[in-house]
Design brief:
It is built from 9 helices and 15 strands. It is an alpha+beta fold.
């Protein structure tokens, strides 16, 4: 094994060095990276130089890849990236120009600033996300588009026993249209809406890599099944507020060449503001989970 794992906290976030992700991944390094994901949930690799194909090839070492949902909910526009296996997490249009303030894709993309979990709105949700920074705007004091991550395993551990008993076995409905609706972004075609129907997911699940129990939350979660909508929505808001307290949150300050892996099965994340007149070009691959959370151990 050639890599070095440097923890940034005891159990959440580590930096990985001593590896060029553009090169074929030795089996020992792949296994060490997987073990680090299971322990820390967030891994940071600095100073990488990756093409889209290289990012996809590296990601595929950790599971089958989810096709990006962007094309399903943005029909009739020109897309910038060739592959449907990589999501365009940029503020650029199909001609690589900065999106206009009222552009539909920009308004949709603003929902990334809500606390969420990638692809929880799919029946088989996301497992790992691998986000690579091609261009990061200069930080003039207003922020360069940092990303915050919340540790949902630690947040679950810190819940009162009474709350753990109350939420055990509860199921929430997740929909990407719910998260967009919170920002009044609702202008989608019937075909776009039908392409991503709501799905049920457990609120508490067992993380397969570590065996630890974890909350499973997102701005995509609209209500709790079997509970009055208002009560369920308040419960979800309370849990998200609990899980995003400062002791559970890490902030990553992006620089060009960073690749960050996070485990959607036990984290939430959100983008932070930046000057959207400046180019910010990040690209994400997301792997598929093994099955719906309802089919996995609670």
């Amino acid at each position: 094994m050639s890599i070095t794992v440097t923890p940034l906290t005891t159990e959440f976030v580590a930096e990985i060095s001593g590896i060029d992700l553009a090169q074929p991944l030795p089996a020992a390094d792949r296994d060490a990276i997987q073990a680090a994901i299971d322990r820390y949930a967030i891994l940071v690799f600095h100073d990488q130089k990756l093409t889209d194909d290289q990012q996809i090839a590296f990601s595929r070492q950790f599971g089958p890849i989810h096709a990006s949902a962007q094309r399903a909910r943005h029909t009739g526009i020109k897309h910038r990236l060739a592959s449907n296996e990589i999501a365009d997490i940029s503020n650029l249009d199909g001609d690589s120009k900065v999106l206009a303030p009222d552009a539909k894709r920009r308004l949709d993309w603003l929902a990334n600033r809500l606390w969420h979990t990638d692809a929880s709105f799919r029946a088989v949700p996301g497992a790992l996300s691998l986000l690579y920074a091609h261009v990061v705007p200069d930080d003039d004091g207003d922020g360069g588009g940092d990303t915050e991550f919340a540790d949902l395993r630690a947040a679950y551990d810190a819940l009162p026993d009474k709350t753990k008993r109350e939420i055990d076995g509860l199921v929430a409905e997740h929909s990407i249209w719910h998260s967009r609706g919170q920002l009044a972004v609702t202008k989608y075609t019937p075909e776009e809406l039908a392409s991503l129907p709501p799905v049920p997911q457990r609120i508490v699940r067992r993380h397969p890599g570590s065996g630890r129990k974890t909350l499973y939350l997102a701005s995509h979660a609209s209500h709790v099944l079997g509970m009055p909508i208002a009560d369920g929505r308040l419960l979800l808001l309370d849990l998200i507020e609990h899980a995003t307290q400062r002791p559970f949150v890490h902030r990553h300050c992006w620089r060009q060449g960073d690749l960050v892996i996070w485990d959607n099965r036990c984290t939430m994340h959100r983008a932070r503001p930046f000057d959207t007149t400046k180019v910010r070009d990040l690209r994400r691959v997301t792997t598929r989970d093994a099955a719906s959370t309802l089919e996995q151990a609670a």
